[in-house]
Amino acid sequence: MPLYSITPVRLSLLIILLAVGAVSCLGQSTTGTVTMSATVSKFVEINSGGAVTLTGNSGGGVTTDGVANSPLAVSINLGELGPSNTNSFVTAQVPLKLRSNAAYVLSMVATVTSSGTTASRIGAADVGFGLGTISRTGLGVNAGADTNATSGDPTLAANGSVNGTTGRYEFTAVRSNLSAFSSSTTALSGPIIMNAVPRSNANGLTVPAFFAVKPQFFENGTTTISVTFTVTAP
Amino acid sequence: MQLRLFTFSFVIVVSFLAAAQTTSAQALDISSGGLPTITGAVSGSVTGSGNVRNDLVVTINFGEVSPLNTNSIVKVVVPIALRSNQPYQVSVTMSGLSNANAQAVQASDVGFGVQNLQLLGGAGKVCTQSTHIVQAPFNNDPAFSTSIGANGRVQYASSLGNLSGSTVILTGPQLSKNNNNNRQGSDGWTFDAIFTLTPQFFAPGVSSATLIFTISAGPNVPC
């Protein structure tokens, strides 16, 4: 008997295998599958909320103004801050606009450098700071309660006074001057700002940042104040 | 004894082939209709076969759809091929994409439409007595049907939110001229399933869904 003789049994098995193979190779299907996924990462941004308002100044002016919904890059010359400026305060109001799809934290760091050499030069404590009324309005803006870590408008009577010992005007309220922001410090925080709307929706949370200096007998010289705002989604 | 075994096997084979013919005779078939494409994505992708003889197995990753993606829309076009020797219908079922947070991506945030129904090749059947009908509201390109809803959210003329259970999206007469049991490269029709997602301030997270396209016997319309 040959080694590979085809017996009826083997022939039957071969036919069955071929039949099964043929059917399985028909390559037809009545269903198809499409699977899909998408990722939404945390997103936060800070932009200008509009034009700067400068009041009480003698000389000076807004060098680079804010443009709503554009990157925040404002430059202000506060003008004369000595006693020749008879206004009670020189105040700059800088509108900020924040947007996020998650809880946010707005922090700030400030540096104040003066050409003066004595204790009477303008220092960080002489520059009042505060965040004003927070507004969450407009289509697509989520309602939520924000926490203002500052004391608001630094020129409010409750936020400063003349030091009875030194005679120097001081911003005394909590986080009411730039000395509280020598390192990155939270100024504002809150829940998600925007509902599910496209980026082309220009609404958001707006808040004015107040900077104020009371003209005094400061040491002669020039002073540069640099403030950086950073918003994060922890 | 051997003759009895052979006879028994022969009967089994004949029965098997008869059953196979009944269930698979070029009746209805759905497959890839070509290479899928994606535009406007950031870190997104789409994979699928460009060979119309291969099964429809497509994986879409829309990528980043928060405002970090500054493109106006992410659009995916999935060509799908159909073959039949009888009237047909195509239905879609969806699973997943049920985020509890209303601000997260929802089914209604994914635009879905059917366009570009066309012959796959010379062996595709052109019927003169009936037309292929894209069922409402899916006969649109969602990339060009966007609008802003009362809540400020982007909405589409049709979306995955219009799918409920097994939803028929397409019906029509016979699709193929021949009666070939094997998938050919030119024996049916194709259409584009179009999916869109507009980047928005969605709540953070990862969303996913699975769609199953099914072709089955449709309304008995003449060819």
- How is the main sheet of chain A built? 6 strands, antiparallel
**Average pLDDT over all residues of chain A:** 92
DSSP summary, beta strand count of chain A: 15
**End-to-end separation of chain B:** 53 Å
Strand content of chain B: 35-45%
Share of helical residues of chain A: under 10%
Give unreliable regions of chain A as ranges: 13-26
Query: What is the typical, i.e. mean, pLDDT of chain B?
Result: 90
**What is the H-and-E element order of chain A?**
HEEEEEEEEEEEEEEE
Instruction: Considering residues with a beta carbon less than 8 A from a beta carbon on another chain, report the largest interface and each chain's count.
Output: A-B, 48 and 76 residues
Number of helices of chain A: 1
What spatial form of chain B do the alpha-carbon principal axes imply? elongated
Structural category of chain B is: mainly beta
Q: Detail the poorly predicted runs of chain B.
A: 10-26
Rg of chain B is 21 Å
What would a concise description of this structure say?
The complex is a heterodimer of chains A (234) and B (223). Chain A is mainly beta and 234 residues long.
Walk me through the structure.
The complex is a heterodimer of chains A (234) and B (223). Helices cover 7% and strands 38% of the residues of chain A. Chain A is mainly β and 234 residues long. In chain A, strands 2, 3, 6, 8, 9 and 14 form a 6-stranded antiparallel β-sheet that branches. In chain A, a hairpin with a 6-residue loop joins strand 11 and strand 12. Chain A is elongated. Chain B has 223 residues and is mostly beta strands. In chain B, strands 1, 2, 5, 7 and 12 form a 5-stranded antiparallel β-sheet that branches. A 4-stranded antiparallel β-sheet of chain B has the order 8-11-6-13, with no helix packed on it. In chain B, a hairpin with a 5-residue loop joins strand 9 and strand 10. Classes of the chains: A mainly beta (234), B mainly beta (223). At the A-B interface, helix 1 and strand 1 of A face helix 1, strand 1, strand 4, strand 5 and strand 12 of B.
